[in-house]
Amino acid sequence: MTDKPIVVALDYDNKADALTLIDKLDPAMCRLKIGKEMFTLFGPTLVKDIHNRNFDLFLDLKFHDIPNTVAKAVSAAADLGVWMTNVHASGGLAMMQAAKNALKSHGKDAPLLIAVTVLTSMSDEDLALLGINVPAFEHVLRLAKLTHQAELDGVVCSAQEAKLLKSTFGEDFKLVTPGIRPAGSDAGDQHRIMTPPQAIAVGSDYLVIGRPITKAVDPLAALTAIHQSLQTQV
Ligand SMILES: O=C(O)c1cc(=O)[nH]c(=O)n1[C@@H]1O[C@H](COP(=O)(O)O)[C@@H](O)[C@H]1O
Fold it and tell me: For a disulfide at 169, which of 12, 23, 173, 224, Cβ 3.0-4.6 Å?
């Protein structure tokens, strides 16, 4: 199992509440993720606040634009010193290659660059409405092939596709899996879900977990329970 596989997704509209939660968490037990909502509200200052608390940060902005624009956006993310950032694989090969090239000048300090395949909130029926008439796993595989060709570090996918992707692309290709739900917790808007121990067992490297922790009555207890469920599995 990867060192520190749990990435807590912070989707808060209130910075004080987010920092209160962060101050309860242990950077030895998890990494953190902020996305479009928090970065739009609180910007690079929040990134600094999180780094000052010694957490690795996944800046999840899912860039998807023309290659030049995405390359500059990814470079700006790298300048913030984040641990991981991402683009949409559907932006295409040239866009992903431009993003990867933009990180060359950052050397060993460059963040991990990951591409989102098919969002975990999407089902086969949702894909059909977009004119994509193949099961989600086939489209994920197609986008992961492009990502691998562009030499990115890995993909965001659902844990349901992890086994297939690990066996196709090998151990070094990182699999970042949201849509993680401990047994008995509410799926919410997620469709392609799996429990934390199952996700690790099928090859996920990082588990992105939001509401099951942040909306729990006791978030620290929820994180600790998930952490322990993974330790006992090893
Ligand atoms: O890139 C992501 O992190 C992501 C990709 C994806 O396919 N599905 C997905 O849910 N996410 C993010 O993962 C987090 C999941 O949060 P919860 O559903 O609350 O556990 C959210 O912050 C989403 O933005």
Answer: 173
Which residue among 120, 139, 140, 223 has the greatest number of ligand 1 atoms within 8 angstroms of its CB, and so is best to mutate? Answer: 120
Tell me if residue 60 is catalytic: yes
pLDDT digits (tens, 9 = 90+) for 64-85: 999 999 999 999 999 999 999 9
> By percentage, how much of the chain surpasses pLDDT 90?
96
Q: Burial letters for 63-72: b for 16+ Cβ neighbours within 10 Å, e otherwise?
A: bbeebeebbe
196 lines ligand 1 (CB under 6 A): no
What is the value of ipTM here, to two decimals?
0.97
Report the predicted TM-score, pTM, of the whole model to 2 decimal places: 0.96
Find the 179 Cα to ligand 1 centroid distance in Å: 7
The three-class DSSP label of residue 92 is: coil
Q: Which amino acid is at 4?
A: K
| For range 203-223, the mean pLDDT | 95
Measure the CA–CA gap between 86 and 115, rounded to whole angstroms.
5
Per-residue tokens: 174: 């990182």
The residue whose CA has the least distance to atom 12 of ligand 1 is 178
